Amino acid sequence: GLMAEPTAAFSRQRAVAGGAGAGLRESPGGPVQEVLPLATAMWVIGRTFDNAWLQVELDDGRAGWVDASEVAAFGLERVPALDVAVLVETQATTVATQPADPTVNLIARVRTDGRRLNLRRGPGTKYGVVGVAENGSTLTVLGRNKSGDWLLVALPGQEDDIAWVAARFLAFDGDVTALPESDRLSAARIIARGGSTSLKGKLVFQTASGGPIMVYDLVAGRSRQLTTGMDPAISPDGETVAFIRDNGGDAGLYLIDMDGSNERRIFTQSKLRAPAWSPDGRWIAFSRVVGQDSCREVGPGLCMPDNPWLGQFPLRVYDVRGLSRVDVNGGSFRDLPSDKQAFAPDWGDRGIIYQSQAGLQITDDAPDATSTAFLNDFRYRDPAWRPDGGAALFVNADKDHREIYRANADGSGVTPLTQPPDIIFHPRPVQHVAPAWSPDGEHIVFLSDLDGDWAFYVMTADGRNQRRLPIQTPITYRFQGEQVVDWGR
Question: Considering Cα of 80, then 82, then 87, then 88, what sign does the dihedral take?
Answer without folding.
Answer: positive
